[in-house]
Amino acid sequence: MFMWVVLLSAKDAAPDVIKCVQAAAERKTGRQLRALRIDHGGEFTAKNFTDYCAELGVRRELTVPYTLQQNGVVERRNQTVVAAVRSMLKGKNLPGWFWGRRSPRRSTSSTELRRRAPAAKPPTS
């Protein structure tokens, strides 16, 4: 499973960033994006983004507002990244505002640590 972290300066930059990440993911994996699970944010329901997805044949799965259970894996991974970043900041006595504006490397570092960390495997019976 792949995970990219991109810090946005504003929410309206999300569709353009998704297009770039999609292109990078498709190049890296050699597979085409088939579905995109997104919330009902205005940046994802805008006509130009809807047309983009339709043009590429990407199925948009819109989640119900305020229902995190529908996007559980992503929400848990996001929480893990945020917790790791906060821990790294606290360990170096840096203020919380450092995490987004001044040091995007912190979040990408925590993502890299998460990717390399051993994961518990379910017991086989």
Automatic annotation (TrEMBL):
Gene3D superfamilies assigned: Ribonuclease H-like superfamily/Ribonuclease H
Sample GO molecular function, one term: nucleic acid binding
UniProt-listed PANTHER family: RNA-DIRECTED DNA POLYMERASE (PTHR42648:SF25), TRANSPOSASE, PUTATIVE-RELATED (PTHR42648)
Signal sequence residues: 1-15
Residue ranges occupied by any Integrase catalytic domain in the UniProt entry: 1-125
A biological process term (GO) from this entry: DNA integration
Protein name: Integrase catalytic domain-containing protein
Region of interest: Disordered: 99-125
Keyword list, A-Z: Signal
